[in-house]
Amino acid sequence: MAEDAPDKDERTEPASEKKLDDARKKGSVAKSQDLNSAVMLLFGFFILMVMGGTAVEQMSAVLRRTLSEAPLMSIDRGSVGELFAGAMKDLGIILVPILALFLAVGFTSNVAQVGLKFSMEALAPKWHRLNPLSGIKKVMLSSHSAVELIKGVFKTIVLGWVAYSVIDDMVAEAVMLVDSDVRSIAGFLVSTTSEVVIKVGMAYAVIAAADYFYQKFEFAKNMRMTKQEVKDEYRMNEGDPQVKGRIKTIQRQIAYKRMMADVPAANVVVTNPTHFAVALKYESGKMAAPKVVAKGADLIALKIKEIAKAHHVPIVEDKPLARALYAAVDVGEDIPEKLFQAVAQILAYIYRLKRTMSSTY
């Protein structure tokens, strides 16, 4: 099996849209979990800073009300359950908007990375992942696991250093608060925590942005295809080029034979005289305009003239008209209105010539 797998060096072609779409259906996309975490950390902290104080006050009010009502109630299962249910409902009303914002931030971060497309196949359980032996082997032998380990150590060192540097700057101020009241100490802790979270979050965001571009690069590299895979996919989607080529050749041959079969019924063949030949047919009362029944250049033009001579179809030399008809009108189409007069003059000449010949004989 391993021998049949293409070597990475052979995968030189960028992934096709079909391969990317198939991978997407399986849930395989370029995505940075670190970017999601950094966004959640920064925006989550912002949400808590804006709404947290009010939420704490509201929850404290619910708790105080619940504790004040408890001694006044009869101690039975129904009363206690009603009191508890009411408290949970009030707490839910307070917390649901905050949780909804957290979910919205996480959802938006994911959509910004991979787009809005759901995959049921990605949600289906993959039982082979439960095999501990294959999991251990994958972790031990995978270069991806080694890279993730290095990234994890790097993140820990950088973020730890950022947090330490912020706290270290605050040590002197913290010592001065030994004899301060609780409100001052609480304010100091809140401001210190805020600064730590913001600076760590910003550092994490920079690391996460770099990780996002790395994940895109790594995903594109892993999705590359061999030249043979590109050919096989093309055959699967578009059909075998050789078969399609043979079909087109047969179609051209059929069209050529049909066209040559219509030349004897033409009224006139207009020539270049050597390069182009266009056979025209017109039946008064049955056709709205003269029609091109055959046309060709070089050898095909020569063949049209040979057939025309063999079946006594008049051949008229008119270089401008022959070129115009050849360029503007396909076989089976009526001539355009701008060429009516020129063609009408030729047809009139042919009709006069035929009348003259018939009267002579």
The 3D shape can be described as elongated
User: Major β-sheet, in short?
Assistant: 4 strands, mixed
Mean residue pLDDT: 81
Distance between the termini: 87 Å
Please write the string of helix (H) and strand (E) elements. Answer: HHHHHHHHHEEEHEHH
Largest beta sheet: what is the strand line-up? 3-2-1-4
What is the share of helical residues?
Answer: 55-70%
Low-confidence segments, given as residue ranges, are none
Report the C-alpha radius of gyration, rounded. 42 Å
E-strand count: 4
Q: What is the number of independent domains?
A: 2
What is the secondary structure topology, with strand pairs?
Elements: H1 17-25, H2 33-69, H3 77-114, H4 120-123, H5 132-141, H6 143-176, H7 182-222, H8 227-238, H9 241-262, E1 268-271, E2 276-281, E3 291-297, H10 299-310, E4 315-317, H11 319-328, H12 340-360
Parallel strand pairs: 1-4
Antiparallel strand pairs: 1-2, 2-3
Helix pairs in contact: 2-3, 2-7, 5-6, 6-7
Please explain how this structure is put together.
The protein has helices at 17-25, 33-69, 77-114, 120-123, 132-141, 143-176, 182-222, 227-238, 241-262, 299-310, 319-328, 340-360; strands spanning 268-271, 276-281, 291-297, 315-317. With 361 residues, the protein is mainly alpha-helical. A 4-stranded mixed β-sheet has the order 3-2-1-4, with helices on both faces. The mean pLDDT is 81.
Short description:
The chain is 69% helix and 6% strand. It is mostly helical and 361 residues long.
Record keyword descriptors for this entry:
361 residues, 4-stranded mixed beta sheet, single chain, elongated, mainly alpha, name from scop, 12 helices, 4 strands
